[in-house]
Each structure stands twice: as structure tokens, then as C-alpha cells.
Amino acid sequence: MAVRYTIVFLLAAAPAARAQQSVVASVELRMDARTLEVGEAVDVQLVCTNTGAPDTPKGAVPEGLDLQLLNPTPAQQSSISIINGRRSQQSTYTYHLRLVALDEGTYTLGPFSVEADGASYATGTVAIAVVRPAADDTPRGDREMFVELELEPEKLYVTETYAATLSIGIRKVELNGRVYDLDLLELIDRTSQLSIFARERYSVGRRVLPDAAGRRHEYVVYQVRKTVRAEQVGEQRVGPVFLKLNYPTDLRKGFWGNLEVSRSRKVSARAEAVTVKVKGPPDEGRPASYSGAIGQYDLRVSALPLRVEQNQPITLTIAISGAPVSGVAGPNLAQNAELVSRFDFSKEELLGEIEGNAKVFRRAIFPKQPGVQTIPPISWAYFDPRRERYLSLSSDPIDITVEEPSAPAAAISLVDARGRPADTQLTLLAGGISPNYVDPAELLGSHTFALTPLWIGTLVAPPLLFVVVLFLTRYLQRLATDAGFARRRRARRRAHAHLARARRNGEPAARLEGFADALTAYVSDRFNLPPGPVTPAEVRELLAHKCADDALAGEVARFLDDCEAARYAPGTAARMPRGHAAEKVCDWLKRIERSTQ
């Protein structure tokens, strides 16, 4: 956690100095807006002043609002004032939260309480008004941005999946009869509310729409489709989605000839929440063998071997294929009276393994009587959501032959290493696995065991190899499934690639701009920021909050300010040694890595 200290020297009259000496502890909620539209989000700060390090805030959030804590560790800032020779200090701890308006109504947010240094503090309350805007009948072709949210299907049974699709259409910038191709997704405000679609990968398409006057406009359509499993019976809501965009109204050429937004206006678009109805299977007609499976399935039962001695095991294999198989429970064998009367087996719940598109359950059963025996049919039921009724599956009976147990042969006495009779007896059984040694004196138990380096390596190597493989497997799996983690891991490698390209640029100002781009791209990737440009002030604030290196934030921000100035004063860049800036950036990357582990 970084701590920022600001020292302020003031000369004032004595009464003012006395006023500065009082130190008052307080906590308060701060937010920019208290009237929100349904689906809109706003940033909230919980500021603790002179309380000491606080615990996580606690408080109830009324239904209809959603409040998310963005930084579990509060940002700390301290300031010291010296007035007429007298010193006073103020420290603040700030929690950043995001409030999302879900339903229309008037709400009271707070109070929230925190514990700090053995004392309790509480905020006041804030009145929040959530309004539903009037229906917008403006044709989509007359809007700069539109949002579409669709669910398919809108009714399903629990454990089934539905597809949620979000489409964001943004009109290409048209100025003076010319259409500009910009990355408009980067202009979306970070407080936009994307529901379950946050941090997803979007596909990019095109759509042409006419406006009310018949003019045709081209839109860039960003789309994402997400599959969601219905886990609970009832209504499941997706959304609302509320987007804010700084839509360009004027462009200018930057120092390097690239297009920059010189003026913009705030536009917004929203999509109402969509509800999917999740039903459970009916109670009427539910068979006794039903274990909760919903879908379409097939049942296969096999047994091996088909000829055994009495009280020897037979492996009963039950394979349930279909979709979905995740979470499917096998049949309850203890409820099969015929199977219980003819075979002994464990009555514990079957634990299956997924093999391909099937879930396979195996259980060892032991025949009780010799002769020709029959494994009775195994029944299993499921609910078919297409037919909306229960279906029962039953296997065919399986005949097996059970032989009388073989009589044991004479017992063989063991001798120890000195040739004296041992207490242990070996019983030689007919059939089975033949012994490797027939002379009892050659058994391993007759030899002295020595712990050699070879034995130590043999014992240590398998668990060590298992730990290494397990770590690598989980690491690769996380890289494949966690986009934020993968982005953080490749941040430094991408930054060095940018630096290498910038070093090859012979133009000093262009080289500096490349170094600055590498640094800001690294910060964006390392801390998983939303798409969009990052300003030096934002970098300074972010590093001050995230890094334990107090001087790092100022150094990086000053460098970025110098790079920005070099765009308009190329002579500044020419005076900087070629390798100095690159070495500083590499050093900052290492310091950020170390201080944010």
C-alpha cells in the first residue's frame, strides 16, 4: 500500500492556527450524483478521516441497488500543515465503491460503519432516487449509439443453459461529409454498467441503418455471446445494461499525424433487464428412481467377469450418456431389492467419472450363493424437458456363473534370517497370481533395509514431480480461463516488445512517445484497466494506491508529462540521451513488478 505525504507551509493569524490544531475523526460517503436512471452506475467513496487504519466497512444495501467494493485495501493519504510554527497532521483512508441502480424507486443508502483503533465510526445516510426514463421512440438510425440485449430461450428448466447476447452499435464519426474509422469501444466511460458481460471479448461487425430523413449511416457493432447455466428455480435476470460514451464531435491531427478527439459530447444508451424463467421438474408423476437429472440420456450396464468364485468381486459398470452429464447422480443400488438379496456391496452413494459424453459409475458386487445367478435390471429415471415428462430407463438382466470357493492348500511356515521358524504363516491358494519367490528366505522381509541415496530419490521424486505438474497444469488452465490473469502475466513481455520497437526509431520525439506508450500500456495491462487511453494523472494516482514504492508514482508521472511536452517541443526529446529513457522505463517496470506482488 502506497502512502502519499503532502507538506503544506502556511503563514496565518493565530485564530486560524488554533483552528488547525483540532483533529476530528469522521467517516462520510461521497458521490457525484444522487439521481440515477435504471441501470446507471456511479462511483462512491467512503472517506475515513483521522480514524486510523479501518476495517472493511459494513452496512446494508437496500434491494434495488447494488454496491460493489472495488478496493478491499483502502487508499491512504496524509497531509502535514505547519502554521505559525505549530504542526498538525490529517490522514485519510478511502474506499472506492461502485453503485448500480437496478430498480426504480427512492432509497436510503447507509449508514455504513467501520472499526478503527478500537473505536467505531458510522457514516450518515444518502437519499438515492432511481428513475426510469421515458421510452425512447427515436429510430436507431438517428442515434449515435444503441444497445440490444437478448436471451434465448426465455423459459427453461433448472440445470439447463441459456444464451445471453449483448450488441453495442456505435455510429462511425461523420464530419464534413467524411466518415472516420476510429476504435469507438475505447471511448466508453469506465462507469458504464455491462452486467454479466464485463471484460468479455467482443466480435466486431458492421450494420447500415437509415435515419428519419432517409440518410444511411454505418455503425460498428460490437457483440458478445455468453452461455449461462440456470442454477436455481425462479426468475433469473440479466441486465440492465447502461453505457456512457464520449462521442467525438470534432477531430484534430496530433503531432504525429494521428487523429485525436478535440471535442465530444456525452451520449448514453441502455437496455432493460431481461428475465428468464427457470422451472423445476414437477412433483406429479415423479418416479422413485429419479435422482434430479434433466436432459436427454441413455443407460448402459455391464458386468465383468461373468464367471467367478463365491465371494469374489464382480465389477458392475453403469454408464449414463447424454447432456448435460455434469452433476448427474447414478442409480441408488440400495433400493434394488433383488440386487441386495443376491449380492453384497457397499451402500454408499455412487461416485462417477466423466468419460467423453458419459458419466460412468463402478461398484464391486460380491455374489452370495454359488450357481447361475442373475444381476437384475438396473433402473434410472430422468426428466425430459422437451417432452416435459419423466422417463425411466432399465437395463437387461445379466447372467453370471458363481463357482464354489476353492479349498486352501497346506500352510507354509516362514523362517527368519537365522533360520528360526517365524510366527507368520503363508496360505497358498489355488489360482490367482503366482509368487515371484518360492523360497521364504529370499523374501524382502528377510533382508536388512538400508536408506541409500537411490531410495531417497525414489521416494522424493514422484511427489515432487506431481507438485510441479499440478502447478503447471493449474497455471496453464488459469491462463486459458482467466483473461485478467493472462493479461497481467504478459504485460511486461508486451512492454519490452514496445520498447524494442521504440528504440529502433531514429526520431527522438517519436522514440519518446513509443517509450511512453509502452509504459502506459504496461500499467493498463498490469492492473487490468478497461480499454482506453491512460493519462499521466491517472497513472500517478493508480501507482500511488497500488505500489509500496512511494517515489515511483511521481517519477513515472513526470516522465509521461515530459513525453507529452516533447510532442510539441521536439528539441526537448533531442537533448535526452538515446538509452537513458529506455533504461529508466525498464527500471520502473521492475519496481512496479516488485511492489505489486
What are the defining features of this structure?
597 residues; Immunoglobulin-like; 6-stranded mixed beta sheet; alpha+beta; 5-stranded antiparallel beta sheet; 10 helices
What report would you give on this structure?
With 597 residues, the protein is an alpha+beta fold. It has four domains: 3-131, Immunoglobulins (Immunoglobulin-like, Sandwich), CATH 2.60.40; 140-279; 298-403, Immunoglobulin-like (Sandwich); 485-595. It contains ten helices and 35 strands. A hairpin with a 4-residue loop joins strand 31 (379-384) and strand 32 (389-394). Helix 5 (491-503) runs antiparallel to helix 6 (508-526). It is extended.
Helix content: 10-25%
According to DSSP, the number of beta strands is 35
Instruction: Report how far apart the termini are.
Output: 11 Å
Give the domain tally. Answer: 4
Structural class by secondary-structure content: alpha+beta
Main β-sheet, in a few words? Answer: 6 strands, mixed
What is the molecular shape?
A: extended
Average predicted confidence as pLDDT: 81
What is the CA-atom radius of gyration, in angstroms? 36 Å
Name the assembly state.
Answer: single chain
The parts where pLDDT drops under 50 for at least 5 residues are 1-21, 428-435
Number of helices: 10
Strand content: 35-45%
Write a compact overview of the structure shown.
The chain has ten helices and 35 strands.
